[in-house]
Amino acid sequence: MFTAKHVAASQVTIVMPPREAEDLRQELVSGQGVKAVWNVLSRLDVERAQASVTRDRELILQMIHDGPGAHKLNTVIAEHLKDWILEACEGHLLHALRDGAASVAVANLCSEVGGLLSDMGYLERARFVMEEGLRLHEGSGTLGSNAGADLLANLGEIHEKQGDLDGAAELYERAALCFAATSAPVPLDYAALKRRQGRLLGVRGDLEGKMKLYEEARHICELANALESTEGTVLLSSIGAAKRQAGDMEGAVQAYEEALGIHERLQTLESPEGATLLSNIGVARLRQRKKKAAKQAFERAMAIREKTGTLETSAGATLLTNIADVQELFGDAEGELRLYLQAKEIREKTGTLDSSAGAVVLSHIGGIYAKQGDSKEALLWYARARDAREKSETLETDAGAKLLAKTAELLSQEDRPKAAALLEEAWSIRKRSETLHSESGVKLLSSLCSLRGDMGEYEAAEEAWEAAREVVEAMGDSSTMPEV
């Protein structure tokens, strides 16, 4: 298969017996099929393959080692198997939709296949089949069921990944109303909705609201004794990331370790969810300045993404940006830029560049050019990052204000009035988003004070200094007061 697909570029067709194909589809409908897919892809290892003749096996493995190598072969085969599995499931679903099938089972299959497509990075295809599932639920009057609510939540997540935060929020709210209308919502599905709603609040800068919803989701899982599940690991990983953002590294590591233990007991670490957890652990190690441990966690996450064919996804792009941070610590600017550009290409391909995460990638690329002294190129990337934040409605956040401040810093040497205007805009954003009372807020006001002073605008400079003094007093840390 490798030779035909990768070397000879031939068309390869894999045929699944009808009964086995139907078994896979039924597994998807029951919610167990996705786990089976990750198990198949993650366990693919040519070096463990057997042969009836031992000498033949040795010769084949030697050819592989002398040629592409086992890792390359496994990756190519996994990618092809992934596409085939998707084709088998999606093809059957599209055929059923063309034939006018309108059963609840088909609607549920839309949700499961859509989720699989989304996990693989095919967001537009996922959105299409989920919208078809929504149409079927509406037509059959089952949208108010648990399955209907879960589909709405899954569709909302796709909108969120694509940067449509308002659309995502609306779908999440509709899902919440549907769950509320059911007599007994499925705990894991309801908890997943709470987690997604919390994540959305976090993207918009409401970290307190995010953590509150995460804790509600955990409470739902614990009441149902369902924390030992894939959703439980995703939730704990999210809680860890939120605690890390809040500066609670001890709490973050504790949540990550709890999630890791569940994955190991369930034997589900070799999955996209496991890769995300390992990536989060890597970020935590970076914050602790444990570069070697971070690198090991990221490398393990990368191996899982390659095995499961999920590197070219939004989560895969995030992993690449995390690895780029390690390259920066090791002083490898060239490797750092290469990884960020690869992440940008993936986000372009998956339609997730105009998002908060996409803006992070674009901003980091600009930062690299700024360090290299290429202000013109850096400003172009910062402008693209701003555009992504405006499109995803995340400019009015802490991250958005930081982007404007970085842009102003570069502009201050050649266009002081424009730089000052950007700092004023960032100041307004921090006041509206309630993020002014922070070290970043004080730094912003200090920069504005200095810039206004250099421009001879002393009243404006004094206004910024007074604002900085008020923030410092409110924070109770006089050591952060800027010297002007």
UniProtKB/TrEMBL annotation:
Coiled coil: none annotated. Keywords: Repeat, TPR repeat. SMART domains: TPR (SM00028). The keyword Repeat applies. It comes from the Eukaryota. Gene3D superfamilies: Tetratricopeptide repeat domain. This is Nphp3 protein. It comes from Symbiodinium necroappetens.
